[in-house]
Design brief:
The complex is a heterodimer of chains A (181) and B (395).
Chain A (H helix, E strand, L loop, with lengths): L1 H15 L3 H23 L2 H17 L10 H25 L20 H9 L3 H12 L4 H8 L3 H19 L7
Chain B lengths: L2 H10 L5 H18 L5 H4 L1 H18 L3 H12 L22 E6 L2 E5 L5 E5 L3 E4 L6 E5 L2 E5 L5 E6 L3 E6 L5 E6 L2 E6 L6 E5 L6 E2 L6 E5 L4 E6 L4 E7 L6 E4 L5 E9 L2 E8 L4 E8 L1 E7 L5 E8 L2 E8 L2 E12 L2 E6 L5 E6 L4 E6 L6 E5 L1 H4 L12 E6 L3
Antiparallel strand pairs in B: 1-2, 1-28, 2-3, 4-5, 5-6, 6-7, 8-9, 9-10, 10-11, 12-13, 13-14, 14-15, 16-17, 17-18, 18-19, 20-21, 21-22, 22-23, 24-25, 25-26, 26-27
Helix pairs in contact in B: 4-5
The chains are: A mainly alpha (181), B alpha+beta (395).
């Protein structure tokens, strides 16, 4: 972890000085998790790509002002997850006023799943964007509830309650239906 | 399920086309990085300098009436951000990278740019569009439709109120145009001018081929595809708002409809020739323009979002897969394919540049700067950025 942080600081310093290879290293380190986190919140690959891409562009735009002592990941993930929540909320509103959810099924192609991956993806999709976000931040990106509270700008107690409620709902949806046993 | 199993399950979920998304995002990020202007000393201190200037201006305003002009100058400087554009751009347009001619509408009229870069002003027109072989252009002012040769010779004129968005049919025998809220059609030799239907303010689009099949939108929001000689409506489809653009593929089997959903969101929908909706994809950003390639079903799409613009290429049957071509600060205006489809011409309004981009190797870019002034001889280039109305017809 310490080696990664040292590398990251060096990449940021290099990118600030105009080094494309350093920017590429930073991108390769952070893109997969940023994209995946966005996807797990919005459940739409094209939207997730736009969200993660915009977050990186925001990072590049403000690169000169970025404090190298701070870790890059939380800063990026904060942008990604907040934008993903906004996008998912907006889609929910549009669906409520009658617009069909376009091509959602097409975006659910599996990659390299564990036996649980597809059921978890499907169950996550039934939660609210806010619940999905805290689960993704906690269990995919591995932030503490305190860190999540700062990223989403909500009280830590709200994070804990959303996590508890979200995980309960997830577990309920993943339990086998007793009537079919 | 334990926390560990949940974590493993989440790590096991991979979004579709993960590597493709990464590759596309990297191209966009790299372009943005290349354009980045590292903060130099004067800019780091710009805020302090501007505040000092504003204080001086305020003092001057208090002390003298002339000071108000100084305040206005400072206000203008504070609100202006210049987009640098592609470095090492040619200072003037000396040639096109492929055969054909480019039709342009600038504040001082319509122009034809020849392959050798020479420019000819056609006249004081607001709109222009090529005939199918590029032997003529149909041009319009607010009160007149006209057919002109590329050398500027006027073949005929037709007086009509509030004329705009004229389009020449691929057969060469018909011209569709809007006159106020009416869709009208006239023969290529000016005969037989008639009203066809009421229409919304979006340019009608002729389906490629010799049949005179036209797509247009009614004021009540119905996309209509009709055979204009017989008057037969072939198919209709509802649209949620007035589209920004209707565009047929070169083989006439696909119709792209771009609809703004909100100031920050739009939808691209593709229909087949029978009116079946094949694709519909909402996208973030503001739609600018789209153009089908001349030889296949690739679409070049320009959109803006958060102070930036991007040009991407999609297949009409796979809109979700978008290949980034170029992204930059500010606004892009138009895009046009060269005849043959080897080059894309992109107008970068905020940088006052045209970019010629090789469609098969998007890293090959030829940039030309000071476009506005080049179409404003003797002037300053103030006013609207020159619009690209088409790149037509290799020899």
């Amino acid at each position: 972890m310490a080696a990664l942080q040292a590398n990251e600081r060096a990449w940021i310093r290099g990118a600030q000085a105009g080094s494309l290879p350093d920017l590429e290293a930073l991108f390769r380190e952070h893109w997969p998790r940023a994209f995946r986190a966005a996807y797990l919140v919005v459940h739409d690959a094209a939207a997730a790509e736009d969200i993660a891409q915009e977050a990186f562009l925001a990072a590049i735009r403000t690169l000169d002002r970025f404090d190298r002592r701070r870790p890059f990941g939380p800063w990026l993930h904060r942008i990604v997850v907040n934008r993903a929540i906004d996008w998912a909320r907006a889609r929910t509103l549009r669906a409520e006023v009658g617009e069909p959810a376009l091509e959602l099924a097409a975006s659910d192609a599996p990659g390299n799943p564990t036996p649980y991956s597809q059921p978890v993806l499907a169950a996550l999709g039934e939660l609210s964007p806010e619940h999905r976000a805290v689960i993704v931040l906690r269990h995919l990106l591995e932030y503490t509830p305190g860190e999540i509270a700062r990223m989403l700008d909500i009280p830590r107690g709200t994070v804990n309650s959303r996590l508890r409620r979200g995980l309960d709902d997830l577990a309920e949806r993943l339990e086998p239906d007793e009537e079919t046993l | 399920m334990t926390d560990r199993e949940l974590r493993r399950a989440l790590f096991g979920i991979r979004p579709p086309d993960e590597l493709g998304a990464q590759r596309r995002a990297w191209l966009v990020a790299r372009t943005a990085f290349d354009e980045r202007e590292p903060m130099a000393w004067p800019r780091r201190h710009a805020r302090a300098l501007l505040l000092a200037a504003a204080a001086v201006a305020l003092l001057a305003a208090v002390l003298s009436p002339q000071g108000r002009a100084v305040i206005d100058d400072v206000r203008e400087a504070l609100g202006t951000e210049r987009v640098v554009g592609v470095q090492r751009a040619q200072p003037s347009l000396t040639s096109l990278p492929a055969a054909g001619r480019v039709l342009v509408v600038a504040p001082k009229g319509a122009w034809v740019v020849e392959a050798d870069g020479s420019k000819r002003r056609l006249g004081d027109y607001d709109d222009a569009s090529w005939s199918p072989q590029g032997l003529h252009a149909v041009v319009s002012t607010r009160s007149q439709l006209a057919a002109v040769r590329p050398n500027g010779e006027v073949r005929w004129t037709l007086a009509r109120p509030r004329v705009h968005d004229a389009r020449w049919s691929p057969s060469g025998f018909r011209i569709a145009y809007l006159s106020g809220s009416n869709l009208r059609i006239v023969a290529g030799d000016k005969t037989g001018d008639r009203r066809v239907d009421a229409a919304a303010a979006v340019a009608p689009a002729w389906r490629p081929g010799d049949e005179h099949v036209l797509a247009y939108v009614t004021p009540t929001g119905t996309l209509t595809v009709a055979q204009t000689d017989s008057g037969e409506t072939l198919w209709t489809a509802p649209v949620r708002a007035t589209p920004a653009q209707l565009e047929w593929s070169s083989d006439g089997t696909r119709l792209l409809v771009a609809v703004p959903l909100s100031p920050s969101r739009f939808a691209l929908t593709v229909y087949d020739g029978t009116g079946r909706r094949l694709q519909s994809l909402p996208l973030p950003g503001t739609f600018r323009t789209a153009a089908f390639a001349p030889d296949d079903n690739r679409i070049a799409v320009v959109r803006s979002q958060a102070g930036r613009s991007e040009l991407v290429i999609s297949e009409s049957d796979q809109l979700r897969v978008r290949e980034p071509v170029f992204a930059g600060k500010g606004a892009f205006s138009d895009v046009a394919w060269s005849p043959g489809g080897r080059w894309l011409l992109l107008g970068w309004e905020s940088a006052d540049q045209w970019l010629f981009i090789r469609s098969t190797d998007v890293e090959k870019i030829k940039a030309v700067s000071s476009l506005a002034q080049q179409f404003d001889p003797g002037g300053t280039g103030a006013g609207e950025f020159p619009r690209i109305e088409g790149w037509c017809c290799g020899q």
